[in-house]
Amino acid sequence: CKMKSLNQLLLKFNQKQNFNYEDFFVSKSNYFAFALIEKWPKWEKNIVNIYGEKSSGKTHLANIFYKKNKTIKITEDQLNDEIIKKLKVYENIILEDFKNKTDERLLYSLFNLVDNDNKYLLINSLKPISEMNFLLDDLKSRSKNCLFAKIENPDDDLMFAIIVKSFSDKQITVDKKLINFIIKRIDRSYGKISDFIYKIDELSLKKKKPIDFKTIKEIL
Questions:
Q1: Among residues 46, 118, 123, 42, which one has the least CA distance to residue 79?
Q2: pLDDT tens digits, residue range 124-156?
Q3: Which end of the chain is least crowded, N or C, by CB within 10 Å?
């Protein structure tokens, strides 16, 4: 997939937050995860685990996968014997925001269903499932036999895209020079960018302060 230019990005972002295909910005930080979604069904393994920091784009990628293929999306609190039976009719399954808070027997049953029926499972998590402390030896072993895609800390282009889109979503107008100023000084973290945007939003809407260098320095 050809990377979207920053000019295209600025033109296409609208004021609604969404998870559309055309609104996902591909950079070095997330290219491998995005490429896997594009590559389906030619995966080397039937289970793919995309992991990375909160707000790094995992849900956006899952939504792209969901819209492109015959897929069902579930969370771990929905896992039970009944739903595992219902999953048999789907070729693709998304397990969203997995934190290892479910019955390990149910997760292992899900893995077996995927293996035995040649289905595909996309798991999103903050850390790789291979590093989760499973008690079942079979599950521990199976969790390592997956395809892993880490979303790395954002590079400059991705930081620019996230900040522009976040401002656009909140209908905040900020000069490009100020965005470049932010990128050079903010921590290279999706969470820190999210916190920063929240504080900018709070100042511009609630306190009616202009978004200028002084305000940005104060927040940083």
A1: 123
A2: 999 999 999 999 999 999 999 999 999 999 999
A3: N
